[in-house]
Amino acid sequence: MNYSKLVDEFLQQMHLFRRFKPQQKINESMHGEAFALHHIAKSGDKIIPSEISEAMGISGARIAATLNSLENKGYITRQIDPSDRRRILVTLTDKGREQENEYRRQLTETIEKMLRQLGEEDAKEYIRITRKMAELANCDGGSG
User: Minimum mean pLDDT among 10-19, 41-50, 103-112: which range?
Assistant: First the structure.
Protein backbone atom coordinates (compact mmCIF):
# COMPACT_ATOMS: atom_id res chain seq x y z
CA MET A 1 0.00 0.00 0.00
CA ASN A 2 1.25 3.48 -0.82
CA TYR A 3 0.77 5.35 2.44
CA SER A 4 2.33 8.53 0.99
CA LYS A 5 -0.70 9.05 -1.22
CA LEU A 6 -2.99 8.45 1.77
CA VAL A 7 -1.02 11.03 3.75
CA ASP A 8 -1.53 13.60 0.99
CA GLU A 9 -5.27 12.88 0.87
CA PHE A 10 -5.53 12.91 4.65
CA LEU A 11 -3.82 16.31 4.90
CA GLN A 12 -6.00 17.73 2.15
CA GLN A 13 -9.18 16.52 3.87
CA MET A 14 -8.02 17.76 7.29
CA HIS A 15 -7.36 21.19 5.79
CA LEU A 16 -10.90 21.29 4.37
CA PHE A 17 -12.35 19.91 7.60
CA ARG A 18 -10.57 22.58 9.66
CA ARG A 19 -12.45 25.28 7.73
CA PHE A 20 -15.80 23.56 8.41
CA LYS A 21 -17.76 25.83 10.80
CA PRO A 22 -18.96 23.07 13.17
CA GLN A 23 -15.39 21.79 13.44
CA GLN A 24 -14.24 25.28 14.41
CA LYS A 25 -16.81 25.29 17.22
CA ILE A 26 -15.53 21.90 18.39
CA ASN A 27 -11.92 23.11 18.28
CA GLU A 28 -12.83 26.20 20.32
CA SER A 29 -14.39 23.98 22.98
CA MET A 30 -11.17 22.00 23.34
CA HIS A 31 -9.16 24.98 24.51
CA GLY A 32 -9.64 28.45 25.92
CA GLU A 33 -12.35 29.58 28.26
CA ALA A 34 -14.86 26.85 27.38
CA PHE A 35 -12.35 24.10 28.14
CA ALA A 36 -11.21 25.81 31.34
CA LEU A 37 -14.79 26.13 32.59
CA HIS A 38 -15.49 22.49 31.75
CA HIS A 39 -12.34 21.30 33.50
CA ILE A 40 -13.10 23.34 36.63
CA ALA A 41 -16.67 21.98 36.72
CA LYS A 42 -15.43 18.42 36.19
CA SER A 43 -12.89 18.76 39.01
CA GLY A 44 -15.53 19.32 41.65
CA ASP A 45 -15.23 23.10 41.62
CA LYS A 46 -12.00 23.57 43.57
CA ILE A 47 -8.85 23.31 41.53
CA ILE A 48 -5.45 24.95 41.37
CA PRO A 49 -4.40 26.83 38.23
CA SER A 50 -1.46 24.51 37.49
CA GLU A 51 -3.85 21.54 37.19
CA ILE A 52 -5.89 23.46 34.63
CA SER A 53 -2.83 24.51 32.62
CA GLU A 54 -1.55 20.91 32.65
CA ALA A 55 -4.89 19.56 31.41
CA MET A 56 -5.00 22.19 28.67
CA GLY A 57 -1.33 21.83 27.77
CA ILE A 58 -0.65 25.56 28.11
CA SER A 59 1.77 27.70 30.11
CA GLY A 60 1.11 29.15 33.53
CA ALA A 61 1.11 32.64 32.02
CA ARG A 62 -1.52 31.63 29.47
CA ILE A 63 -3.79 30.05 32.10
CA ALA A 64 -3.39 33.17 34.26
CA ALA A 65 -4.69 35.28 31.35
CA THR A 66 -7.59 32.87 30.80
CA LEU A 67 -8.48 32.89 34.50
CA ASN A 68 -8.28 36.71 34.60
CA SER A 69 -10.77 36.86 31.74
CA LEU A 70 -13.09 34.33 33.40
CA GLU A 71 -12.90 36.19 36.70
CA ASN A 72 -13.64 39.53 35.01
CA LYS A 73 -16.75 37.96 33.47
CA GLY A 74 -17.87 36.69 36.87
CA TYR A 75 -17.50 33.00 35.93
CA ILE A 76 -14.92 32.07 38.57
CA THR A 77 -13.48 33.20 41.86
CA ARG A 78 -9.94 32.72 43.10
CA GLN A 79 -9.20 32.34 46.81
CA ILE A 80 -6.18 31.47 48.92
CA ASP A 81 -6.29 27.82 50.04
CA PRO A 82 -6.84 27.93 53.82
CA SER A 83 -4.83 24.71 54.27
CA ASP A 84 -1.87 25.97 52.20
CA ARG A 85 -1.65 29.74 51.87
CA ARG A 86 0.80 29.39 48.95
CA ARG A 87 -1.94 27.89 46.74
CA ILE A 88 -4.83 29.57 44.96
CA LEU A 89 -8.11 27.69 44.55
CA VAL A 90 -10.28 28.38 41.52
CA THR A 91 -14.02 27.93 41.94
CA LEU A 92 -16.93 28.26 39.51
CA THR A 93 -19.62 30.81 40.30
CA ASP A 94 -23.27 30.10 39.53
CA LYS A 95 -22.86 32.30 36.45
CA GLY A 96 -19.80 30.24 35.44
CA ARG A 97 -21.73 27.00 35.86
CA GLU A 98 -24.53 28.36 33.69
CA GLN A 99 -22.02 29.38 31.00
CA GLU A 100 -20.31 25.97 31.12
CA ASN A 101 -23.71 24.29 30.72
CA GLU A 102 -24.46 26.53 27.73
CA TYR A 103 -21.09 25.76 26.09
CA ARG A 104 -21.76 22.05 26.66
CA ARG A 105 -25.30 22.28 25.23
CA GLN A 106 -24.08 24.06 22.07
CA LEU A 107 -21.24 21.59 21.59
CA THR A 108 -23.54 18.58 22.06
CA GLU A 109 -26.01 20.04 19.56
CA THR A 110 -23.26 20.66 16.98
CA ILE A 111 -21.70 17.20 17.28
CA GLU A 112 -25.06 15.44 17.33
CA LYS A 113 -26.06 17.23 14.11
CA MET A 114 -22.81 16.17 12.41
CA LEU A 115 -23.19 12.56 13.53
CA ARG A 116 -26.84 12.42 12.39
CA GLN A 117 -25.78 13.67 8.95
CA LEU A 118 -23.29 10.79 8.75
CA GLY A 119 -25.96 8.26 9.58
CA GLU A 120 -25.82 5.63 12.31
CA GLU A 121 -23.36 3.22 10.67
CA ASP A 122 -20.86 5.87 9.53
CA ALA A 123 -21.15 7.76 12.84
CA LYS A 124 -20.27 4.61 14.79
CA GLU A 125 -17.41 3.86 12.39
CA TYR A 126 -16.12 7.42 12.70
CA ILE A 127 -16.13 7.15 16.52
CA ARG A 128 -14.43 3.74 16.35
CA ILE A 129 -11.63 5.05 14.12
CA THR A 130 -11.25 8.25 16.17
CA ARG A 131 -10.96 6.16 19.35
CA LYS A 132 -8.32 3.96 17.73
CA MET A 133 -6.33 7.00 16.56
CA ALA A 134 -6.46 8.48 20.07
CA GLU A 135 -5.30 5.18 21.57
CA LEU A 136 -2.42 4.98 19.10
CA ALA A 137 -1.42 8.57 19.83
CA ASN A 138 -1.46 7.90 23.58
CA CYS A 139 0.45 4.60 23.33
CA ASP A 140 3.49 5.69 21.39
CA GLY A 141 3.17 9.38 20.67
CA GLY A 142 1.77 8.62 17.23
CA SER A 143 5.01 7.23 15.82
CA GLY A 144 5.27 3.93 14.00
Answer: 10-19
Helices (H), 79-141: 94-118, 120-140
- Rounded alpha-carbon distances, angstroms, from residue 110 to 39, 56, 139: 20, 22, 29
Host H or E run for residue 80: strand 76-81
- What are the φ/ψ torsions at residue 65 (nearest 5 degrees)? -65, -40
CA distance 7 to 9: 5
Within 13 Å, how many C-alpha atoms sit on residue 16's CB side? 5
Q: pLDDT digit string (tens) for 65-75?
A: 999 999 999 99
Burial class (CB in 10 A: 0-12, 13-18, 19+), 93: middle
On whether the CB atoms of residues 89 and 46 are closer than 8 A, the answer is yes
Rounded to whole angstroms, the maximal C-alpha distance in the chain is 61
What's this model's pTM, rounded to 2 decimal places? 0.74
